[in-house]
Design goal:
This protein has a single domain, classed as Rossmann fold, CATH 3.40.50.300. Helix content is 61%, strand content 9%. It has 12 helices and 5 strands. It has a 5-stranded parallel β-sheet, with helices on both faces. Helix 2 crosses helix 6, helix 6 packs antiparallel against helix 7 and helix 7 packs across helix 11. It starts with a strand and ends with a helix.
Length: 255
């Protein structure tokens, strides 16, 4: 099995559910858990191991943690590009198709690459790697910022994207009522779509949901199983439902 990804509109509850699921010993969140700590403990320099030990004693200290994540994120991204030299060609062809927020978009794609690559390297054989903010979510980000989704698809760039990435075996598509998404964003003190090129909040949420539906369609066409999950109810029920769906999928794969 490759890995499982969460995707869905802002405020759908992806990160909250992700954190609940990876707290289990069976599921591993990669760089968002302790992937970098694992790498440093096995391969890091004496100075890096010392920094890690200090961070373990003072978990509230974020600066050192961010330094290590940045360093090893760069290392693993460079390894990915070395193995996939066509990535540079993909970016060079993608950028002219992007209308808004080009540089931030490329950083988000790079972050997804780093999460998956570090997660693959550091998970144990008994763990299932689960990624929040992975390749499917980033394809939705590409769709939102491009000049034309249809043109992007017909250009073959979406095909190249799926050829480049470590394709997830399964995508968990989190669906939530748009108003609930908006209320959740309000409670955490920030809204999606504050950029000047975005629509008003209601229309922006509707558009992003439509684009993620297209991501789901493109993924299914390439053999990625998409599991649709409704998160309008209690979080514990949603987590239970997702775990049951993952177990069903694992059983089907092992047959």
């Amino acid at each position: 099995m490759s890995h499982i990804e969460f995707f869905g509109p802002p405020g759908a509850g992806k990160s909250t559910i992700f954190e609940s699921i990876v707290s289990s010993s069976t599921y591993y969140g990669g760089v968002d858990e302790d992937g970098v700590t694992k790498i440093v403990s096995e391969n890091g320099s004496q100075r890096e191991r010392l920094l890690c030990s200090i961070l373990n004693k003072y978990p509230g200290e974020r600066y050192g943690d961010n330094v290590l994540r940045y360093k090893y994120g760069c290392d693993y991204f460079d390894k990915f590009v070395a193995k996939n030299p066509q990535y540079s060609m993909f970016v060079s062809k993608l950028l002219p198709q992007i209308q808004n927020d080009k540089h931030h978009l490329i950083r988000m794609v790079r972050q997804a690459i780093t999460r998956v690559e570090i997660g693959k390297e550091t998970k144990s054989e008994s763990e299932t790697l689960i990624i929040d903010g992975g390749y499917l979510q980033r394809l939705g980000s590409i769709f939102r910022r491009c000049k034309s989704v249809d043109q992007l698809i017909h250009s073959g760039l979406v095909d190249i994207y799926f050829e480049l990435i470590q394709t997830p075996c399964c995508g968990i598509y989190i669906h939530t009522d748009p108003q609930i998404c908006i209320n959740r964003q309000k409670s955490r003190g920030g809204y999606v779509g504050t950029e000047s090129w975005c629509y008003d909040l209601q229309d922006e949420m509707a558009l992003r949901t439509e684009l993620l539906n297209e991501v789901s369609k493109q993924a299914r066409q390439r053999g990625i199983k998409i599991v649709n999950i409704n998160n309008n109810t209690n979080k514990k029920l949603t987590v239970k439902n997702i775990l049951e769906k993952i177990e069903e999928y694992n059983d089907d794969v092992s047959l």
